[in-house]
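Here comes just one.
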Amino acid sequence: MNAGDIGALVVFILVVFGGGSAIGVSTLPGDWYAGLTKPPFNPPNWIFGPVWSVLYIAIAVAGWRTWRYNRTGRAMKVWYAQMLANFAWSPVFFAAHWIGLAFAVILLLLVLIAAFVILAWPQDRLSALLFTPYAAWVGFASVLNGAILLLN
C-alpha cells in the first residue's frame, strides 16, 4: 500500500463514518420516536450508535477496496447507491417522520447491500464479507421499521 492508497482509505472512512455520524447526530430519535408504539424486539436506543460505528468502518473499507479494484465498475456504482440510501433513511424516518417511505428506503438499501455482496464476491471476497454484518443489521432494521409502520 502506498501513501495514495492510505489517503484514499482515510477519505472513505471520513466520508462514511463522518457522514453517517453527522446524519445520526442531526436526526436523533427524540420525543416523536419515544411516543411511537414499538414491537417487543425493539433494542434500546444506546445500541444503535456503537453498532453503526462498527458497520460504517466496515462499509468504508469495503468501498475503498472496491474502488481500488475497479473505480467505475458495477460493484462500485452499487456501493455509491447504497450509501445514498443509507444516508437518506434517518432523515426520512426521524426528521420527516415518514415511516412508510423510510420502510421503502430501507428495503431498497437491503437490496443494494445484497447486490453489492453478489457483485463484489467474484473480485474481492473480503469486501463482500465486510457487508454481511451490515446486511444482517439492515435486515433486522427493516423488520423493525416494518413493525413500527404496522403498529403506528
Remarks:
- The mean pLDDT is 96.
- The chain has one domain: 3-151.
- Residues 1 and 34 are 47 Å apart (CA to CA).
- The two ends are 51 Å apart (CA to CA).
